[in-house]
Amino acid sequence: MNASGSSILVSGRLYLELAVEQARDRHNHDRPAQWHHAGNGGHMAAAAARLGASVALFTQVGLTAHDDDMLHTLAGDGVDVSCVIRRAAQTTSRHVHAEQHGNTQTTTLSLPSHCGLTEPDVDAADPLLLAHQWLLAETMLPLAFLERMIESAGTYGMHTALCVVHLPAQRLPRRLWDKLDYLVINQSSLEALARKAHWPAQVLPDPVAVCRMFPALRGLVLLRGAHEMQVADAQRAVCLPLTQDEGVYARGMGAVAAAALVVALSEGRTLANAGRLAHAAVRFYLAHDGTRAAMPFKKELDWRDLTNATLAQGVV
Question: Tens digit of pLDDT for each residue in 241-251?
Fold first, then answer.
């Protein structure tokens, strides 16, 4: 195993999407559009690298010049992309997928992204699993691959974290939750999980209840929109304000929060201090334009460790 505590292996999607800015009023038909790199795999890897971690990305991309550009851009951010699997891209539908978050947010258009990673592909990640101490993954990977990846990470003695900002069609099995150390989740995903899996009603207002449901879970970050972040363990939750501005660009904040949390934990910081770094990183992200362009370097953040602080003391 790599002796560097800040070595992180990220596994998640990477693809292109078209962002269309909303018109300022109904008479303004000029809606500039721009292609940009998307997918929480690439976002989490870039955010973690900017925060000073040694990061590798394990994902699958296509064989086009656009895919080359996405990988070159990540490599320029300091992300190891040497083990990314290259295959011809596949789509699951002819229809373009559109995603919009309120009238003031950017509308994004993309072909339905189908990540072609399969369970046997985990074998190709063995060198990365050996060389890193942390695995940060997202839920939109194929379920068989995700389960095997997290199981293999546990076999290699890695710490595991899962970023949940979208939910797959399939239900996430209990055996997956039992292998997770940390969870970063947004409110809508928590509500959907509770509904699908028949979780008790108290998990919605109280993230502590989620930690108590899964004894292996050491900590949780819950994003309640762009307004508030909660950091919790099985004893107590701490609420941290974000922004009251309805017009902020909020997409991607889950990836930033997950990356910052894992970077701080990989450096040996307490959950309380890791929550402080995640909070500072998300606040910085929400205050700047763009997605990757808004991701901070650690030197840009105004934060400090709390000496001997613990989450149980209620101080973050």
Answer: 998 777 677 88
